[in-house]
Amino acid sequence: MKRVLVTGGAGFIGSNFVQYMLSNKENIELLVNLDALTYAGNLENLTEVQNDKRYKFVKGDIRDKELVEKLFCEYDFDTVVHFAAESHVDRSIEEPELFLTTNIVGTQTLLDAAKRHWKIQPNDKYSCDYRDGVKYLQVSTDEVYGALGETGMFTETTPLSPNSPYSASKASADLIVRAYHETYGMPVNITRCSNNYGPYQFPEKLIPLMIHNARNDKALPVYGDGMQIRDWLHVSDHCAAIATVLEKGKIGEVYNIGGNNEKANIEIVRLILAELGKPESLITYVKDRPGHDRRYAIDNTKITTELGWAPVYTFEQGIKETINWYLDNVEWVERITTGDYLNYYTKMYENI
Ligand code: NAD
Ligand code: TYD
């Protein structure tokens, strides 16, 4: 039975992962979700699991050493899945410092607590086996590899070459995780996934933003020429891949996660307009993002051949379901765009 700490479980991927684990994995004894509820954290994403006896929410910051230590002592975690991060590239251009402290120092705080709690000392890995079943998983991104030209794909050995403050902070965190493995023998994995789409994504990211604007007949802001390429994966396939790495990943290894779905931004925007029956005249080309990465593409050979994971969704099916989800959950989007969701925590948790 597993005692899992999930950080950032009120965000887009984290909340999908919490739901995925509690519905699909019978070996979860306890799952604690530590989330600071920044603008991107929304407990409404988790209403389906909030009464599950195995689930506990803790509002707090991953950089709060005392709190993190206390949680390890109180709950005796054997697994950490670290999602919590500042995740939006455009915000990182405006406010790099927040990205560095949350994404880098926050990661180190978690690693230190896990190291102390798991009694992992320097060079343990040379003298004994890892404590069975203990694992720290760092949820990273393909953006740490930088940008590709027209050909080629990111493999796990592609040199890190991040271009934005966001990706630089994620790459730094990856290097710290690696160092804790090499130096202290920490039982770690790093996963690097391509762009996710699906339910509960904050409507500042491309797909939910474009659906929201198209629905409201507002301009769809396409950066630069719209020919930048992203490699899209449905969030539930990402969650399944993380669960696979937790179960079967070889300690110390990095696994790329992607579903071979390269699309230019403008293709996605046109597809959304077509699905919603809206005119292409809503497309508005705007000034390009500084340092905008041209193309990402993941080579998923390692995780598919060594661990047997494969995506379930085709992009065609996944994007239709996703568009329908946002149309069926207009109130969820409205509460975010008006800021109302920020009151949810106070309303639901004022007595505890
Ligand atoms: P998100 O922005 O939707 O959610 C981030 C969550 O972290 C929020 O709930 C927020 O409240 C929480 N958080 C932020 N700072 C915190 C802090 N100091 N302490 C505690 N909680 C804090 O992000 P997401 O899109 O769900 O991404 C989750 C992770 O997956 C990130 O690490 C991101 O780098 C990685 N990732 C994302 C994508 C993608 O396409 N979205 C792809 C690959 C990897
Ligand atoms: P985004 O969803 O922010 O993810 P990332 O930057 O992490 O890949 O953006 C996806 C792509 O869409 C990226 O190339 C930037 C582009 N984009 C736009 O063209 N317009 C927008 O309003 C946004 C948010 C993104």
From TrEMBL:
A Pfam family: GDP_Man_Dehyd
Single GO term (MF): dTDP-glucose 4,6-dehydratase activity
Catalyses which reaction(s): dTDP-alpha-D-glucose = dTDP-4-dehydro-6-deoxy-alpha-D-glucose + H2O
Gene3D superfamilies named in the record: NAD(P)-binding Rossmann-like Domain, UDP-galactose 4-epimerase, domain 1
Cofactor(s) the protein needs: NAD(+)
Domain NAD(P)-binding: 5-322
This enzyme's EC code(s): 4.2.1.46
SUPFAM superfamilies: NAD(P)-binding Rossmann-fold domains
Keywords: Lyase, NAD
A biological process from GO: nucleotide-sugar metabolic process
Stretches assigned to coiled coil: none
Family designation: Belongs to the NAD(P)-dependent epimerase/dehydratase family. dTDP-glucose dehydratase subfamily.
The name this protein goes by in its record: dTDP-glucose 4,6-dehydratase
Lineage, broadest ranks: Bacteria, Bacillati, Bacillota, Clostridia, Eubacteriales
Gene from which this protein is expressed: rfbB
